[in-house]
Amino acid sequence: MTFTDMLRAAERAHQSLLCVGLDPEPARFPRGIAANAQGIYDFCAAIVDATADLVIAFKPQIAYFAAHGAERQLEKLMAHIRATAPNVPIILDAKRGDIGSTAEQYAKEAFERYGANAVTLSPFMGFDSVLPYLEYPDRGAFLLCRTSNPGGDDLQAQRLASVPGQPLLYEHVAQLAQGPWNINGQLGLVVGATRPAEIRRVRELAPTLPLLIPGVGAQGGDARATVKAGWRSQRAGDTSGPIAVSSSRAILYASAAADFQKAARAQAEATRAELAAAAATAPAPR
What we know:
Blueprint: H1 3-14, E1 18-22, H2 37-51, E2 57-60, H3 62-66, H4 71-84, E3 91-96, H5 100-113, E4 118-121, H6 131-134, E5 140-146, H7 153-156, H8 169-178, E6 187-191, H9 196-205, E7 211-214, H10 223-230, E8 243-247, H11 249-252, H12 260-279
Helix pairs in contact: 2-4, 2-12, 9-10, 10-12
């Protein structure tokens, strides 16, 4: 099963487009959870247990673990997700991007050490920095394409005069990912939920690729606008790419009390329902 197949299967099994981001901040942990590396595992494992049947994917952000010396706890968490929700893909949010020999080591880290099903990458250094990840045929790689941070305009919105048609940089990344770079059908794209017009444009340029769309919830992305821009109804034989709409803080920190698991589940259920309602009115594939 390819990563995209796994994503589609999770979408069908859980009737969900929701990806829960695991960005643990010890200072925000509820009462009773220690603000240390072990607490990071305990908190994230509790969120996984509360939401595993509601999601299309989980997305741990590696910096939130590494900053607290919790890499072993991340390994343990990945194993816990695989045991608790074996059919739910895990996207390691690492945003790696380096020369080929170093990329080989990062690929081993993501796929062999942590056992991730997919990883996020920066494409800025070109195809040779992406290729080592594609040597794992059952894994996926999401390229940063149109991010929601204000500084994204500095490069992503610049027009490339030397490329036929003079696309914006993010459009060129989408075209490369849909075309010559996607040698084994393993690539996807990251597009921020706060930019629905750009999501729609990326979907036009990359109709078959999975999209990872962070930013719904605390970052202000609109769930309905996001789904309508990026999701296409799945009909027999179509090749429209799936989407995973990520929400982190709104779910993780829905409560600071002992009921945090219950509150996280309730918020995840509400977000999943909102995404499903938007999907019901989303356009069909062209």
